[in-house]
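Page 42, continued from yesterday. The earlier attempt failed because a stray header line got pasted into the input along with the sequence. Redoing it now with the clean sequence only.
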Amino acid sequence: MQNKAIFLDRDGVINEDIGYVYKQEDFIFTDGVFEALKYFQKCGYLLFIVTNQSGIARGYYSENDFLSLSQYMLKEFNDNGITITKIYYCPHSPETNCKCRKPNPKMLLDAKKEFNINMSVSWLIGDKISDIEAGLRAGVKNLIYIGEEECANAHNIKSLKESMKFVL
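This time it went through. Structure tokens are written below.
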């Protein structure tokens, strides 16, 4: 039997996007994130984070900085009864044209293969057009865009908390 998943971007969806977040003191969870992720989990979805982290390639912070912050984030989720199945991340800069950087779908397709995900019943939630494009390219049928502008091919909302009305 295939699994269903929620793919979440990190900066701007899980936490406030203040630009190249890598320190625990700068990591501020978005409003409603714990409530939404608990709801998704209760609905039977596996939770994945798929995030571009070009700050690593640009030398703004190290991969160990990213991994350390990820451990903090996972502990906070765990302490709130939320299990993140896996974090997929791209440490490359846009100039490298790597296969894993969104809008390329590699991170999503890796999760699909590794965890037997049915993309037609899964969701991707992002705050950039590149997130939505990655979801489309990976065959994710349900897309949510958090932002002020309109995004074609996705439900347009203002906050992660609003996504609960779409995901059943």
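Notes: The domain at 5-165 is CATH 3.40.50.1000 (Rossmann fold).
Reminder to self: strip header lines before submitting.
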